[in-house]
Amino acid sequence: AALYKVGDNLGWNLNVNYTQWAAKYPFALGDSVVFVFSGSHSVLMVNEIDYVLCNIHNPVQSLLSGRAITLAARKNFFICGIPGHCITGMKVAIYASVASSS
């Protein structure tokens, strides 16, 4: 299984196009992603509706910086939990295929 750093060298920050970033990689179930960020950001795993609406009040899970999370679902949605950040584009949807990328 592969490990991906969200945003590559840019990490988890404002002013990064995470839609473009996610489109570059063939994510598969069992792969892992890691978010690297400072204290001025956070990562919330959310459902699809909360992803679209940038709702930070109903997270499935809150993630720590540098801690890898395994893609266990076909659709995986992450947003920054700091008010105003998700709306400016600090969010990423990661779609995992059934086939392994390794």
Automatic annotation (TrEMBL):
<dbReference type="InterPro" id="IPR039391">
    <property type="entry name" value="Phytocyanin-like"/>
</dbReference>
<dbReference type="GO" id="GO:0005886">
    <property type="term" value="C:plasma membrane"/>
</dbReference>
<feature type="domain" description="Phytocyanin">
    <location>
        <begin position="2"/>
        <end position="98"/>
    </location>
</feature>
<protein>
    <recommendedName>
        <fullName>Phytocyanin domain-containing protein</fullName>
    </recommendedName>
</protein>
<dbReference type="Pfam" id="PF02298">
    <property type="entry name" value="Cu_bind_like"/>
</dbReference>
<dbReference type="InterPro" id="IPR008972">
    <property type="entry name" value="Cupredoxin"/>
</dbReference>
<dbReference type="GO" id="GO:0009055">
    <property type="term" value="F:electron transfer activity"/>
</dbReference>
<dbReference type="InterPro" id="IPR003245">
    <property type="entry name" value="Phytocyanin_dom"/>
</dbReference>
